[in-house]
Amino acid sequence: MNKKILAITNNIIERSKATRAAYLKKIEAQKSQTVHRANLSCGNLAHGFAACGKEDKQILRGLNHSDIAIVSAYNDMLSAHQPYEAYPKIIKQAIRDTGGVAQFAGGVPAMCDGVTQGQPGMDLSLMSRDVIAMSTAIALSHNMFDGAVILGICDKIVPGLLIATMTFGHLPTVFIPAGPMPSGIPNKEKARVRQQFAKGEIGVEELLEAESASYHSPGTCTFFGTANSNQLVVEVMGLHLPGASFVSPNTQLREELTKAASRQVTRLTQQSGNYMPAGKMIDERSIVNAIVALLATGGSTNLTMHIIAFAKAAGIIVNFQDFNDLSDAVPLITRIYPNGSADVNHFQQAGGMALLFKELLGAGLLHEDVETICGRGLTQYTKTPEIKDGELVWLDTFDQSGDPAVIATTEKPFKADGGLKVLKGNLGVSVMKTSSLRDGSLIIKAPVVVFEDQHELDIAFNAGELNRDFIAVVRFQGPKARGMPELHKLTPPLGVLQDKGFKVALVTDGRMSGASGKVPAAIHLCPEALDGGLIAKVRNGDMITLNGETGELILDVDETVLEERVSSKFQVNGHHEGMGRELFGFMRRSLSSAETGACSLFDH
After folding, report:
1. C-beta atoms surrounding 576 within 10 Å
2. Which of 4, 174, 214, 285 is the most buried (most CB within 10 A)?
3. Any residues with CB less than 8 A from the CB of 163 and at least 6 apart, and which?
4. Of 154, 141, 161, 300, which Cα lies nearest the Cα of 219?
5. Where [4Fe-4S] cluster is bound, by residue (predicted)?
6. What percent of the chain has pLDDT over 90?
7. C-alpha torsion 324→371→266→384, nearest 10
8. pLDDT at site 518
9. CATH code of the domain occupying 420-596
10. Domain segments of the chain: what residues?
């Protein structure tokens, strides 16, 4: 085992000793020695199976077969989740074949960040994660269930489902993915067309044609943003079947993996004699494995907050510095857009998760001896699922990369580190994704241009006011101010200016898209402007030094000058009303800082 990773893991274990012990005691108290429905009164139980068929009712009246909850984030608005429409029927039959029953326990809301980017609804995106966690808790609160299968993929959905999974950590739980859509136009081409539109070289019709050729069918968007980063993290933690993450929808292999995953949860229940609850299965080593894999692949910066949040739900305390230190120890071994030109389908064809596991395990970068839904040890995840003679089997098919431009080796990586840097200085602490940056763009010192809305920057760009070196400070975007929306509209104009040869960067207490990385960006800045952050005192023309090599983020203004300045006030300007935002004031006010997960569900 890599000594640095082992030391970081031990630090997390020591830091989490009290909270983890309290968590394990809690889930131990919640387990049942028999089926959970044995604790219900006759009236409770009658309500619980009133709508079931005769055969399922008979099984549920007995106390020797499991009842499995299905929790789904299905809706037609998310291409990644649309395939889930057919899953409950498949899952119910697969579990019935084992002698048990599956009941659809609840659906959770699932918004598409691709639809809401730059729109008022994006202000609800991060908060939807906590709503999803609470919705899942309501679904599982009936105490009918001995295990759960969870259907979710995209940005805030999986983290919310994971928070709930850890909260109901006494239940064995299996996540079932749906897979990516086929490759459309290359992601690099899509980015080029967006920049053409930003420069006024093409119109709306041409832009819509390109976007529609990229997002074109059921399945996950194919770039390596938050959705696909989620799938990678869930599999590395052992909550997916081996190799399940990136198998396309509506294929025989996908359906057989869904059936197998459904059967697998019944092998982990108290009644199986092989009880493995999710909260015990996921430990500090599992969380470190998730971060290592995220860094080795250049995944979404959104996971820096999400992993912190769902780890805390399991009594495990992780912080930004852990990500920084692990990044120093982990090489970047994949090139998937925005890290490169390949998409997740190309990654899958080059060896996918099986080869990634082989490389990371071979270099001692993952804890191998962890629990998974398939038993102890990650070595079984180095095999690839296939249909052979009509049966689902796992084969050892990749000894080396099918495309070295997509998956490299740990001996000859694309980058010596994991491409994530924590920046610290008088402005506070933030994270910076370096894996996608061009050579020479890690260090920038330039005058500030202050904005308090991403649309303001777009207006200034279109007016030709930004043709120079500058650092854009976009503030009052943090959890308490706006709910921390993604600032996706900043990428095309800043990218155009960068291509013109100007040195540009971004500093914000908000988030960027999970697929961002081209422009140097210090994001998730803590403390945020509305919470006493120095970013509220920044003025146009101030100098900021952003250094992605040394990890510094410095506002170069004399302390005496800063002491005399009055912090700018947050101008609500309707940002808390419309599209349901007026319903979420209580949640905005209780959100923690980005470094503690930007979460409203725990004491901080």
Report:
1. 16
2. 174
3. 129, 130, 133, 309, 310, 313, 599, 601
4. 154
5. 154, 221
6. 89
7. 80
8. 82
9. 3.50.30.80
10. 3-41+64-182+217-395, 183-216, 420-596
599 annotated as a binding-site residue: no
pTM of the model: 0.96
Residue 267, C-beta contacts closer than 8 angstroms, at least 6 positions apart: 274
| CA pair distance 64, 17, nearest whole angstrom | 36
Answer yes or no: are the C-beta atoms of 582 and 572 closer than 8 Å.
no
Q: Which residues of 170-188 are buried (b: 16+ CB within 10 A; e: fewer)?
A: bbbbbbbbbbbbebbbbbe
3-state secondary structure at position 394: strand
The CA distance from 508 to 524, in Å, is 7
- List strand residue ranges (DSSP E) for 354-463, in order: 371-372, 375-376, 384-388, 391-395, 420-425, 428-433, 443-451
Distance CA 154, CA 589 (A): 25
Q: Using the structure block, give the residue that is written with the tokens 């920049």.
A: 195
pLDDT tens digits for range 346-361: 999 999 999 999 999 9
Cβ density class 21-57: b for 16+ within 10 Å, e for less: eebbeebeeebeeebbbeebeeeebeebbeeeeeebb
Encoded amino acid at 428, one letter: G
What pLDDT, in 10s, does the model give residues 311-337? Answer: 999 999 999 999 999 999 999 999 999
What sign results for the dihedral spanned by CA atoms 145, 173, 372, 279?
negative
Main-chain phi, psi angles of 314, to 5 degrees: -100, 15
Ligand-binding site membership of 42 (annotated)? no
Please say whether the beta carbons of 9 and 284 come within 8 A: yes
- Does residue 200 contact residue 498 with C-beta atoms inside 8 Å? no
| DSSP state letters, 539-563 | -TT-EEEEETTTTEEEE-S-HHHHH
Q: Print burial letters for 251-287: b (CB count within 10 Å at least 16), e (below 16).
A: eebbbbbbbbbbbbbbbbbbbbeebbbbbbbbbbbbb
In this predicted structure, what is the pLDDT of residue 198?
85
